[in-house]
Amino acid sequence: MLWLFTDAARLSDPLPAIARLPRFLSGVVFRHDGVPGRAELGRQVAVLCRRRGIALSVAGDERLAARLHAGTHVRGRHPQRRAGPALTGSAHTVAELRQLAQRSVPVVFLSPAFATASHPQAAVLGVVRWSGLARSQAGAAVLALGGIDNGSARRLPRWCSGVGAIGALS
């Protein structure tokens, strides 16, 4: 499965990228945190996702997720206050993976798999470490995030559930 992570700095208008995602085989994690007009952009994203059969998860705002009839995205480094159901989550450490497993989050993005423009100073997991951590996550679909492009995606194990990207999809 292919997921687009929206990013106000790197992809100010995510709608064209969403329109190019494969129907019924894709998802969007809507971030655009702190952007004026976020709710209206979220509404436009939700309409386009529904029309194209694309899953939608909203990061950082459970109320907006509910208004958009979307899932929520749990950030491992910034857990939500309430422990309601989540569609997706992101993790960077073993502890964050455990938190998501305890919440039974079904789709987990393990990051950064490779060097990424989003977090240039972050320690990269690489294929071997990413694979070991991903295999420890029983019951969840684990997807790679961070530095994903055609070349890096081919380096991931065949059992990888999918990838999330920003730049490769913009």
List the SSEs and their pairings.
Blueprint: E1 2-5, H1 15-20, E2 26-30, H2 38-52, E3 55-59, H3 62-67, E4 71-75, E5 88-91, H4 94-102, E6 107-110, H5 126-135, E7 141-145, H6 150-155, E8 163-165
Parallel strand pairs: 1-2, 1-8, 2-3, 3-4, 4-5, 5-6, 6-7, 7-8
List keywords for this structure.
170 residues; TIM Barrel; 21% strand; 8-stranded parallel beta barrel; globular; alpha/beta
Outline of the structure:
The chain has 170 residues and is an alpha/beta fold. Helices cover 31% and strands 21% of the residues. The radius of gyration is 15 Å and the shape is globular.
- Approximately how much helix is present in the residues? 25-40%
Stretches where pLDDT falls below 50 for ≥5 residues? none
CATH hierarchy, class: Alpha Beta
Structural class: alpha/beta
Write structural notes for this entry.
With 170 residues, the chain is of the alpha/beta class. It has one domain (2-169): Aldolase class I (TIM Barrel, Alpha-Beta Barrel). Helix content is 31%, strand content 21%. The chain contains six helices and eight strands. The chain has an eight-stranded parallel β-barrel. Helix 3 links the parallel strand 3 (55-59) and strand 4 (71-75).
